[in-house]
Amino acid sequence: MDKLQIEERVVELLKTVYDPEIPVNVYDLGLIYRIELSDDLTQLDVDMTMTAPSCPMADFIVEDVRQKLESIEGLATVNVNLVFEPEWSQDMMTEEAKLELGML
Description:
By secondary structure, the chain is α+β, with helices and mostly antiparallel strands. Helices cover 30% and strands 17% of the residues. The protein contains 3 helices and 3 strands; from the N terminus they run αββαβα.
């Protein structure tokens, strides 16, 4: 796979990860801040956040993201970093997510 194919697969897989308390995937919620693939296409770094720093499901969600991304053929290393800067806000959600949650 080339870089674009891997990046598309990353987004596709991220859209299958849900916070059990919210019926919207982590990508559309705007919880993914950075997706970076190494030049040799073997290492993936992802920065993500939670809707709240005290999210009781944070460990579960981060591990779900890691496991799904590790399934991408060719990746040797997947680093999922939980960050809280900048602080998440509803403005980071996609229009689709806002519609799903009745915010539009």
